[in-house]
C-alpha cells in the first residue's frame, strides 16, 4: 500500500460539489442527528442559542465560565457577547468548514438567532487523561520514572520542562482525513540539521490515510523502507530519552492519543542501547552493553549453528560433547531442523499467549507452560534436552534487546537462518548473514546511513556505539547527524577538576 502522495489529486467532481454546497443549516442538521449534540436557547434578558457536543465540552465550563457572564445583561449582537466573555481564542465566523472543524473538536457555537449563519466559536475542550505513570516497556532501576500519556499537550510539557529554551521548536500538522490527528514534529532550532527537519515535516505532510490513531501508524508510513523488518525510527515512552536525543540534534515525532514518541534519524546500534546505560558508570554501562550485543548474536545464531553442525559438520563437535549429543538424540524421530522449528514455534506461541493475556495470567502461562511443555517434549522423545536448553537460552537472550521493535526483528531473523543452515550448513548461515548485511548497508533512517558509525566509519561517534565512553570524552555531537552546532561542550573545562582551596 502506498501511503505517500506522489501527486495531489483533485477531489472527484461530485465530492467537490457536495462539500462546496453544504450550507450552515445542512451542517446543523447533520450535527443534530447525533444524540450527544445539544442546542439550548437562553432567554433571560437577551435571547441567544448555544450548541455543543456534550461528550466534548465540560458542562461546568458552560455554566461557570460562559453563561454567568452573558445571561443577565442585554446583548445586541455577537460582538457584545465576545466583549463580555473573559476568554481567549474566540472566533467570529460564517465559514461552514471552519465551524464544522471547530465544533467537532470541542468548541461551543453561539448564535443570536437560530437562522443566523454567523456565529461565535468558544473553545471548551473537555479532556479525560490518565495520570502520568512509570515506564512499562523501558523501565529503569535508576533515573526518572515518568512516561508519556495519551495527551499531546501533556507530553510536550514533559519534554519542554526538561529543555526550557526558546530554541525548542514544535511544528504541528493534522493527519488523517477522518481523525484529523494532531501530529507534532519536535526539534531544537540551531542544533538539528535543517535537511533532517524538512524531510520529517515533508513525510508527515505527505501521509495520505483516513485515520491515524497511534504513532506506530506514522512510523510505518514515513520509514525509508517499509518492507524492511528492521525498525528505522526508535519508539520510546520516556520523555527523558526524547529530551536527550533532541539535544544531540535529532527529531521527535508525536501524535495526539499515543503514549509513544518516534525519534530519528537513528542507527542500528542505538536499538541495543538502553537509556539506563547513561545513568551508570561508563565501565559498567559498556560492559552491560557488550553483554547485550553478545546475547543478541547468541539468540540469532545458536539454533541455526546447532542444526548446521548436526546436519553437515559432525567433525566440528569435540569428542566429549559428541557422546552427549548422540545420547540426547538417540530416540528422536525428527531431523534437527524439524526439531528446532517445533521448539522455536512453541516458544513463540508461549510468548504470544503470555503477551495477550492479563498480566498475572500471562506470567503463569509463560512459566508453567514452558516447564510442562519442555519436560513433556523431552520425556516423549520429541526433542533433545540439549536443543531445549539452547532454544530456551536463545529466547531468554532475545529479551535483552531494550527496544521492543528490534526484539521482534531478532525473533524473526532466527527462521531464515535456520532454513539456510538446513540447506547449506555453516555456509548457509554465512550467506544469510551476508544478505542481511547488504540490506543493512542500503538501509537509511530519514535519509541517513542506518549502520553508522560503523559504515561509513565515524571514529568520533564510536565513543557511544558498541561501548559508552565517559561524558567528558563526548565533546562533539554525532557527525552522522550533520548538526548545525557540532560542539557539546568545552573538553578542556569538562576534564578540569578544581578543589575549593584552588
TrEMBL record:
Top-level taxonomic group: Bacteria
Gene Ontology cellular-component terms listed: plasma membrane
Keywords assigned: Membrane, Transmembrane, Transmembrane helix
Region (Disordered) location: 1-20, 477-502
Transmembrane spans: 290-312, 362-380, 386-405, 417-441
Name under which the protein is recorded: Spore gernimation protein GerA
Biological source species: Fictibacillus phosphorivorans
Record keyword Cell cycle present: no
Stored InterPro entries: Spore_Ger, UPF0353/GerABKA_families
Protein family: Belongs to the GerABKA family.
Keyword Membrane among record annotations: yes
Amino acid at each position: 500500500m502506498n501511503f505517500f502522495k506522489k501527486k495531489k489529486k483533485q477531489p472527484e467532481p461530485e465530492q467537490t460539489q457536495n462539500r462546496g454546497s453544504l450550507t450552515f443549516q445542512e451542517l446543523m442538521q447533520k450535527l443534530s442527528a447525533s444524540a450527544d449534540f445539544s442546542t439550548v436557547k437562553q432567554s433571560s434578558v437577551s435571547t441567544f442559542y448555544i450548541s455543543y457536543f456534550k461528550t466534548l465540552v465540560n458542562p461546568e465550563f458552560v455554566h461557570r465560565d460562559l453563561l454567568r457572564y452573558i445571561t443577565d445583561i442585554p446583548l445586541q449582537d455577537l460582538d457584545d457577547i465576545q466583549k463580555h466573555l473573559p476568554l481567549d481564542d474566540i472566533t467570529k465566523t460564517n465559514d461552514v468548514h471552519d465551524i464544522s472543524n471547530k465544533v467537532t473538536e470541542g468548541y461551543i457555537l453561539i448564535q443570536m438567532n437560530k437562522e443566523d449563519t454567523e456565529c461565535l466559536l468558544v473553545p471548551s475542550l473537555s479532556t479525560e487523561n490518565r495520570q502520568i505513570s512509570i515506564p512499562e516497556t523501558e523501565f529503569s532501576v535508576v533515573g526518572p520514572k515518568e512516561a508519556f500519556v495519551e495527551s499531546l499537550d501533556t507530553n510536550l510539557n514533559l519534554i519542554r520542562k526538561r529543555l526550557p529554551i526558546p530554541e525548542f521548536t514544535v511544528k504541528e500538522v493534522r493527519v488523517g482525513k477522518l481523525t484529523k490527528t494532531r501530529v507534532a514534529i519536535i526539534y531544537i532550532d540551531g542544533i538539528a540539521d535543517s535537511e533532517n527537519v524538512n524531510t520529517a515535516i515533508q513525510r508527515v505532510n505527505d501521509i495520505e490515510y483516513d485515520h491515524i490513531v497511534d504513532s506506530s501508524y506514522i512510523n510505518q508510513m514515513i520509514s525509508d523502507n517499509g518492507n524492511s523488518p528492521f525498525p528505522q525510527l526508535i519508539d520510546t515512552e520516556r520523555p527523558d530519552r526524547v529530551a536527550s536525543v533532541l539535544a544531540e540534534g535529532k527529531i521527535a515525532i508525536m501524535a495526539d492519543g499515543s503514549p509513544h514518541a518516534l525519534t530519528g534519524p537513528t542507527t542500528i546500534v542505538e536499538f541495543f542501547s538502553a537509556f539506563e546505560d547513561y545513568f551508570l558508570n561508563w565501565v559498567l554501562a559498556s560492559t552491560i552493553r557488550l553483554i547485550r550485543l553478545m546475547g543478541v548474536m547468541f539468540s540469532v545464531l545458536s539454533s541455526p549453528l546447532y542444526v548446521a553442525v548436526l546436519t553437515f559438520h559432525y567433525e566440528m563437535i569435540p569428542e566429549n560433547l559428541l557422546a552427549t549429543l548422540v545420547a540426547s538424540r538417540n530416540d528422536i524421530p525428527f531431523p534437527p531442523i524439524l526439531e528446532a522449528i517445533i521448539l522455536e514455534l512453541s516458544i513463540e506461541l508461549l510468548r504470544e499467549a503470555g503477551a495477550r493475556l492479563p498480566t498475572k495470567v500471562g506470567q503463569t502461562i509463560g512459566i508453567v507452560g514452558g516447564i510442562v511443555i519442555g519436560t513433556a517434549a523431552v520425556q516423549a522423545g520429541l526433542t533433545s534436552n540439549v536443543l531445549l536448553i539452547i532454544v530456551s537460552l536463545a529466547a531468554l537472550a532475545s529479551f535483552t534487546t531494550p527496544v521492543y521493535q528490534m526484539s521482534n526483528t531478532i525473533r524473526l531473523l532466527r527462521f531464515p537462518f535456520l532454513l539456510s543452515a538446513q540447506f547449506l550448513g555453516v555456509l548457509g548461515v554465512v550467506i544469510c548473514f551476508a544478505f542481511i548485511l547488504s540490506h543493512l548497508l542500503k538501509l537509511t533512517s530519514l535519509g541517513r546511513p542506518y549502520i553508522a558509525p560503523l559504515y561509513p566509519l565515524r571514529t568520533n561517534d564510536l565513543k557511544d556505539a558498541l561501548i559508552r565512553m565517559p561524558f567528558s570524552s563526548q565533546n562533539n555531537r554525532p557527525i552522522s547527524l550533520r548538526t548545525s552546532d557540532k560542539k557539546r561542550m568545552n573538553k578542556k573545562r569538562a576534564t578540569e577538576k578544581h578543589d575549593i582551596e584552588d
